[in-house]
Design a protein that fits this description.
Blueprint (H helix, E strand, L loop, with lengths): L2 E5 L6 H4 L3 E5 L4 E6 L2 E7 L4 H14 L4 E10 L9 E9 L3 E3 L4 E3 L18 E2 L10 E7 L7 H10 L4 E3 L2 H11 L2 E11 L10 H23 L1
Parallel strand pairs: 1-4, 1-5, 5-12, 6-10, 10-11
Antiparallel strand pairs: 2-3, 3-4, 5-11, 6-9, 6-12, 7-8
């Protein structure tokens, strides 16, 4: 199995790659590592939908993969998830792509510019296509945004309109590209913070990154055993 790991920043991948054997640096954004007999490419896509869409699409045109794993930290829209908890995001939607009227925000589907079942969307939602169980990680729904919400008013609007559990800036882009390219995909995130105004002091990025590393490394080792 040939796997592509997609992260927005090196910060999110540094702990993991310390456990892998480096094989090749294809570019400053794409590097190859070895785990057992398996080669794993790591792509640093950049933060946000635009950079992720471009770099992931370019990579998938140049290389063939059996599985794409998007991973990194995420904010939580609910206190049902704990800081540091690692989750499997199986549903995604773009939460700030649409039309703003004088009194509300409408998604492209609500405004009539797109059909809610236009491929690869199903009822306006993008889905992970990998069947991996990920050590029984909690399956959640994510929203993808172009800005990290820390303002009380904008947080309130997001919480009232969307029923997602996690917020990231890349998840839906990865699902969208992979569905179009016909490559299996999944998304693993560790909760670093809650969507609350002025909550920086409550963030725990080190804990989230450490838990993410252990969860992903455990799964990669299982995949290596099953393939061999």
């Amino acid at each position: 199995m040939k796997i592509l790991l997609v992260a927005a920043t090196w910060m999110e991948v540094n702990l993991l790659v310390e456990e892998l054997e480096k094989v090749e640096e294809k570019s400053h954004l794409l590097k190859t590592y070895r785990l057992g007999e398996n080669l794993i490419d790591v792509l640093i896509s950049g933060i946000g939908v635009t950079f992720t869409t471009f770099h992931l699409t370019s990579t998938l045109h140049q290389e063939e993969y059996d599985l794409v794993i998007n991973f990194g930290i995420a904010g939580s829209l609910t206190h049902q998830l704990e800081i540091g908890e690692v989750v499997n995001v199986v549903y995604e939607e773009f939460a700030d792509l649409g039309i703003e009227t004088s009194h509300e925000f409408l998604t492209l589907f609500e405004s009539g510019y797109m059909n809610i079942n236009e491929f690869p969307f199903e009822n306006g939602i993008l889905k992970a296509t990998s069947m991996l169980e990920w050590d029984q990680l909690k399956k959640v729904r994510g929203i993808t945004v172009s800005k990290s919400h820390r303002n009380r008013e904008s947080i309130s609007k997001i919480l009232s309109k969307f029923s997602g559990h996690t917020e990231s800036m890349e998840g839906a882009a990865v699902f969208y590209v992979c569905n179009w390219m016909g490559v299996e995909c999944c998304q693993i995130r560790a909760i670093s913070n809650y969507l609350e105004p002025d909550s920086s002091a409550k963030w725990n990025i080190p804990l989230a990154l450490d838990n993410l590393k252990h969860s992903l490394l455990r799964q990669l080792k299982q995949l290596a055993v099953s393939v061999n």
